[in-house]
Amino acid sequence: MRQQRIAGILPAHEPEIGRWLWLLEEARGRTFQRIEQLDPALVDWAAPESGNSIGSVLYHVAAIEADYLYADILGQPYPQQLVELFPFDVREESGRLTPVRGFELSWYIQRLDRVRSMLLDALQGMSLADFRRARYLQEYNYDITPEWTLYHLTQHEAEHRGELAALRARAEAATS
């Protein structure tokens, strides 16, 4: 069957923003392919050298997306519903990802889906001028635009998708 490899556009006030949202959703779909039919016993398997598990990486991806949405794009504190979705810090004091274990895969997917829904809602009605307007983040001493943020989030997800694939392969080999 012939495949279609053509970028689409999600509904948005500005078609250019809709294209970025489509790219973000395409990246998420590929991430979900990496964990399709994952043996539930492998969600918590951790690589000995990093301590990262599939669950911890998925939690991290969702938490970082939430942070970019609220801290960088919207410039607002997390709403309470989002605070409740992320009961653990993203990183330990050492800088390593916080080990998040003991939850079913659906628990992680729920976070990814909820944050993505919030991001889509926030950006679908945004003007192109606001999408390209730089926000200064004094805490980090940098300027950032929502446009750059979406680029970064697609890259961030792709990098961790590779990590997820490697973790899964290693976990399957270690437990077979």
Tag the structure with descriptive keywords:
single chain, 176 residues, mainly alpha, Four Helix Bundle (Hemerythrin (Met), subunit A), two-stranded antiparallel ribbon, 6 helices, 57% helix, 3% strand
Write the layout of secondary structure elements.
Elements: H1 15-34, H2 54-74, H3 80-85, H4 105-124, H5 128-131, E1 135-137, E2 142-144, H6 146-175
Antiparallel strand pairs: 1-2
Helix pairs in contact: 1-6, 2-4, 2-6
Our Rg estimate from Cα atoms comes to 17 Å
Please report the number of helical segments: 6
User: What profile does the largest beta sheet have?
Assistant: 2 strands, antiparallel
Summed over residues and divided by their number, the pLDDT gives a mean of: 95
The CA-CA distance between the termini, in Å, is 34 Å
Within CATH, the superfamily carries the name dinb family like domain
Question: Which fold name fills CATH's third level, the topology?
Answer: Four Helix Bundle (Hemerythrin (Met), subunit A)
Compute the number of strand runs: 2
Detailed description of the structure:
The chain has one domain (15-175): Four Helix Bundle (Hemerythrin (Met), subunit A), CATH 1.20.120.450. It has a two-stranded antiparallel sheet with strand order 1-2. With 176 residues, it is mainly alpha-helical. The model has no long low-confidence stretch (mean pLDDT 95). Helix content is 57%, strand content 3%.
